[in-house]
Amino acid sequence: MGFRCGIVGLPNVGKSTLFNALTETAAAQAANYPFCTIEPNVGRVAVPDERLDKIAAIAKSAQEIETQIEFVDIAGLVRGASQGEGLGNQFLANIREVDAIVHVLRCFEGGDVTHVEGRVDPVADAETVETELMLADLDSLERRVPNLVKKAQQGDKDAKIEASVLGQALELLRASKPARLTQPKDVEEAKALSRAQLLTGKPVLYVCNVDEGDAAEGNALSQRVFDKAAVEGARAVVVSAAIEAEIATLPGEEREAFLSDLGLHETGLTRVIKAGYELLGLITFFTAGPKESRAWTVSKGARAPEAAGAIHSDFERGFIRAETIAYEDFVRCGGEAGARDAGKLRSEGKDYAVQDGDVMLFRFNV
Prior knowledge:
The chain is of the alpha/beta class. The protein is 42% helix and 18% strand. It has a six-stranded mixed β-sheet, sandwiched between helices. Helix 1 runs parallel beside helix 8 (241-247), helix 4 (122-153) packs antiparallel against helix 5 and helix 5 (157-174) crosses helix 6 (187-195). The chain is flat.
């Protein structure tokens, strides 16, 4: 399991340029006019993790396999999308299919790229897109909630749960607030809210697209976005799509020096992934052996059988136990044998909550 992020924003803010750079491909046509991305382009990239390199070296693995993240470059939205303007209907349908929204905002002045609304104001841009998503959700819930209330009054238990949590979301939307601020009172309400696939219910990561000179520290425009994200409980990162595009053309050994010259310690891709993992509450566990060392992604709080299922459904179905070593212990003890001798290899059962960095071997029987 990785996660699927939809790259959205107004036309001409750098979405497709960023997508091309992140996926190191020219699959998305970047051009200075709206709707140059007509069909959503999908790219999968490996998640960089230095821990996997160390684990593979210790285990003398023949191969390393990273977990992956999927980016979907979605057509640019314009004002009125909720009513079908531009490519509105397609835009909204594509967003429903992603786990999180990566909202690219223009945070640079000047240049040859024309802003679709004739000005540079990233907060206003964010609000334009958010308003269209809220209007679409509002229209959906105003049609659904009354029917759910009727069914709830007739004794339908599931309808009662949905009416409660979606009714709360509807009130938020009527107050011009996104559905992600809804607070389910229990697990059943949380599941009902998730099933509703509300556009404004998805986590948001704001990507501030800045000039090369602002890539390290950001600027006044990106700071406004960070302030907005803090109020919303969202996340924000600074990225220069131009720098990312240049990095994508460089051989691996030259990238570190290039970043260092710019005062950067990591690529924009790495920052986006880290922020995305935090946003969605994801963690990584590892498997290691002579054939391969591999990274796997699960949600924070996942139990050992669920982690086993990320590898193969048979592992989860026939789960017996998980032989587990914390990453630090694996490195300190020089691998599985050393960890076992030092008493750092633990046998965990079905109730074990997987920890980020765990190196695991699953025992199962089907």
